[in-house]
Specification:
26% of the residues lie in helices and 26% in strands. It has a five-stranded antiparallel sheet, covered by helices on one side.
C-alpha cells in the first residue's frame, strides 16, 4: 500500500512574539463583561490606550457569540501584546460553525449577526481556526488591532 501524505493545514496569522496574558472564564451570561474588563486592563497596561474601546467591543462580540451559540463549559482568552499591535484569541470547546467573513449587509436585513460586522470593521485582521484535524475538539476566533486600525475610517 502506498502511503498518502497530506499537506499540513494552513495556519492562521497569529503573533509569534510579545507578552501573553491568559484568562479562563465559565461560559455564562457574565463572561462578556469579565472578558471586556480583562482585555481593557491588558490594553491599558501595555500602552495601547487608543485601542481600548475597539478591543472591548470586539472581545465582547466574540465572547457573546460563544455564549449564545455553543455549549462549551468554559471560554479561554489569550491576549498577545507587542509594541505595534495586540491580538486577542477566544477559544471554546465546540468546534462547529467556524465564523467566516460576513457577506455585505442589505437594507432591511434581520437585526441579528452584527457582531462579526463590527469585528470585521474594527480589526486589522481576524479569523478562526478549528483544532483537532478530523475530530475537531475546539476552535479559536482571533482578531488583531493595531494603531493603524484604530482610525477605522470605514465605519
Amino acid at each position: 500500500m502506498t502511503p498518502v501524505i497530506a499537506p499540513p493545514s494552513p495556519t492562521p496569522y497569529l503573533p509569534r512574539r510579545g507578552e501573553r496574558y491568559r484568562l479562563v472564564v465559565p461560559n455564562a451570561p457574565t463572561a462578556p463583561r469579565i472578558v471586556r474588563d480583562f482585555v481593557a486592563t491588558v490594553f491599558w497596561a501595555a500602552g495601547h490606550a487608543s485601542l481600548v474601546d475597539d478591543a472591548r467591543l470586539c472581545a465582547s462580540e466574540v465572547v457573546s457569540n460563544v455564549y449564545c451559540h455553543t455549549d462549551s463549559p468554559r471560554i479561554r482568552v489569550e491576549v498577545t501584546v507587542d509594541r505595534r499591535q495586540v491580538t486577542v484569541c477566544v477559544t471554546d470547546d465546540e468546534p462547529g460553525h467556524l465564523p467566516v467573513p460576513p457577506p455585505p449587509r442589505t437594507p432591511g436585513a434581520d437585526e441579528g449577526g452584527r457582531g462579526l460586522f463590527l469585528v470585521d470593521a474594527l480589526a486589522a485582521r481576524w479569523g478562526s481556526i478549528a483544532y483537532g484535524a478530523r475530530s475537531p475538539h475546539s476552535k479559536t476566533v482571533w482578531f488583531t488591532l493595531s494603531a493603524v486600525s484604530a482610525a477605522h475610517p470605514s465605519i
